[in-house]
Specification:
single chain; alpha/beta; 6-stranded mixed β-sheet; 5-stranded parallel β-sheet; 11 strands; 12% strand; globular
Amino acid sequence: MALPDWSPIRALPRTPLKQLFDGQDRVAALSADVASIHFDWSKTHLTADAVAAFAALAESMGLAAKRDALFAGEAVNVTEGRAAEHSAERGEGAPESVARARGFHARMRALIDAIEAEALGPVRHVLHIGIGGSALGPDLLVDALGRDADRYDVAIVSNVDGSALEEALDRFDPQATLIAIASKTFTTTETMLNAESALSWMAQGGVADPYGRVVALTAAPEKAVEWGVDETRVLPFAESVGGRYSLWSSIGFPAALALGWEAFEELLEGAAEMDRHFRLTPLEKNAPALAAFADLYYSQALGCETRATFAYDERLRLLPSYLQQLEMESNGKRVTAEGQPVTWPTAPITWGGVGTDAQHAVFQLLHQGTRLVPVEFVGVIEPGDGLAEAHHRQLLLNMFAQGAALMAGRGHDDEARAYPGDRPSSTLLLDALEPRTLGALLAFYEQRTFVNAVLLGINPFDQFGVELGKEMAKAAEQGGDFDASTADLIRRAFG
């Protein structure tokens, strides 16, 4: 396998952003419109030469062939020897995989129809228990799109801290609660402990058959049946769908239930539209590719160790947390896809927050700190509230102004009041926050992560780095032998 040659990228001149705008239509050259989302990279240091250099790198790293292999259902997850078929869940993939996904979706819809018809008794509350990708995606969907939905009261619990589960249980009626247990393997320690506690709560609340109010969302249906879930309430998904890419599968069950099946289908179609754009659009206008080029310019040429995303819409407040797992679990690797040590930076640290709150917390560092941090702004043109127009106008104007200020800077005789400027940002502007546009947005981030991985020469679809801590936690439970510090902490906590 070829290794990335970063020398052409690192040799690119860093022309100040303000100078790049002189006499050039950068907005037209470095923007794209896909699925009712406007993407603008004009306030990054990308140039035509930079895009050409990255396109050459993409060719040398076999991006086109790897993209075709991804959508064909080939074993692109080379360390585990399997495909990564999340795109098949939205209709873009190998025909047999798309057909299987549609069959699983039909099964999910049939169960939702039964729940709505009260075949499982009256349901007003849905308790979704999962962790990682089994919780972050559904949580984002429900929080972003379900604020006005009155179909069901949904709580998504991931933390094994009992306080998190109690907070949800305290507001639910056990007689009207449905429990969804989301675990790819149906063995995840934190998830199964929370599930057992939730079943005990239902039994204590007088539910005669708590297991009869459980739905399992898993790639290991036999494990769910063995645990006690009736086969008719097991919603499978393919083993080739990774956890952090799984919201399109039955893991999205709480969103499909809370928002309605039509909304879930629109979510899938929006994602499919982005998939088609990624597959068919030349790299110089390809949104996931251009975003990855900007990411890699700052990490490889300028040594930036972090990248920040700020959602200027309260409904997208969970987006930074969702991206943290997607990007850092996918591309936080230290070896190539062939297992050789990496000698170049891989994934930057993803962080962020919500505007305008973040402006009064972390933007001091972004404007005047000593670390260069590429910033991504995400906003929505159509407001999500019914208050005076001034609220949304001020929100968006603040977002636009922050990008302009980061680039322009401002001099001052007092250096404490000076802004150096020339700090990059990109902007994603959605026409409206609807299932279709949110689906396209999340698929954009997935494919951007894939492009980054291909050009870095790594495998984005395994996650062995999360296993060691889990194994040591189990060893601690069994009284394993630890270093003096860890042993002392265990003694202090448990005696």
